[in-house]
Write a structure and sequence with these properties.
Elements: H1 4-14, H2 18-25, H3 31-35, H4 39-52, H5 57-62, H6 64-70, H7 76-80, H8 84-91, H9 100-117, H10 122-128, H11 134-144, H12 151-160, H13 169-177, H14 188-205, H15 209-218
Helix pairs in contact: 1-2, 1-15, 4-9, 4-12, 13-15
Length: 220
């Protein structure tokens, strides 16, 4: 496995040099910012990523104002206690994508966020989870959230601004090239290997998961 600086140099050569690459990386929000993010924004971001999975992202984005209105601004309490009448009305609501299974996730994930109140709140739990155990956060989201396995949870955490990696095609290809994994990681063992590699690169570079993930993606 290459030292992170070597991978950074590869990416920099492909993207106009170190300064140009730095401008493209972006940085995550700090824990205090994440802790202060309202529950409705967590639910909104999570819902958008769930609906984007398997759909044209532009379609979801174009309808998003309608989603916000239809789901009452993603008020967690109202969504968690969505009754059958409200659910049925959403199935007929042309402001949103009328997918019953995904509409149900809004209620289920609202319940999940309410549960997190007992653990300090969504911002504290999701935003404060150690980056050195990011795969643990993904596992928790897959287990306790609704349709938050795989890429949906990864994108939700990135769009929320928390420190994260996304196992995109390019990131996965770089991890394979570095001998970290030999195929798309799906097992606990493979995900643990991915986390270990990112932890090493964090130690070497003093950078966030987000920055490292972006560098890996842009190195191909």
């Amino acid at each position: 496995m290459r030292n992170f600086d070597e991978i950074f140099d590869i990416a920099a050569k492909r993207h106009g040099g170190p300064d140009a690459l730095e401008e493209k990386l972006g940085k995550p929000k700090n824990p205090a910012e994440l802790a202060g993010m309202p529950e409705d924004r967590w639910l909104s971001i999570i819902t958008k990523c769930v609906f984007q999975a398997g759909f044209n992202w532009k379609v979801i984005e174009a309808k998003w104002d309608g989603f916000e209105t239809a789901f009452d601004g993603f008020d967690v309490g109202r969504c968690a206690f969505m009754d059958d009448e409200k659910f049925d009305s959403l199935l007929q609501d042309t402001r949103i994508v009328r997918n019953g299974t995904k509409i149900a996730t809004v209620r289920d994930n609202a319940v999940f966020l309410l549960e997190l109140r007992e653990e300090g709140g969504a911002g504290q739990v999701l935003g404060g989870w150690p980056s050195t155990d990011y795969v643990g956060l993904l596992a928790m989201l897959a287990k306790r959230g609704s349709r938050l396995g795989g890429a949906s949870a990864q994108y939700a955490m990135r769009f929320a601004g928390r420190d994260s990696f996304i196992l995109s095609q390019d990131v996965t290809a770089r991890l394979i090239a570095e001998g970290v994994i030999d195929k798309v990681p799906t097992s606990k063992k493979a995900m643990a290997a991915v986390q270990q590699a990112f932890n090493i690169w964090m130690d070497q570079s003093n950078r966030s998961l987000t920055e490292i993930s972006r560098v890996l993606a842009m190195s191909l």
